[in-house]
# Entry
Amino acid sequence: MESNQTRCYRCVGAIRKMIKYGKTKSGNQSYVCRACGKTRVENYAYLAYKAEINQNIIQLTKEKV
# Structure
């Protein structure tokens, strides 16, 4: 059950070592690296990871709102 899309960002290499590791509370697929043990989620449910929302958060923080 090896994923063809996910690569470990810690083990920086061309070989895909991520395998399925269950699901999160929101139902997104979770993966774990066979080499280093680092876990990763394919699609995050937290909206601040989107670029446009992240820019709004930064701007509002600078304005102390």
Summary: The first strand starts at residue 18 and ends at 23.
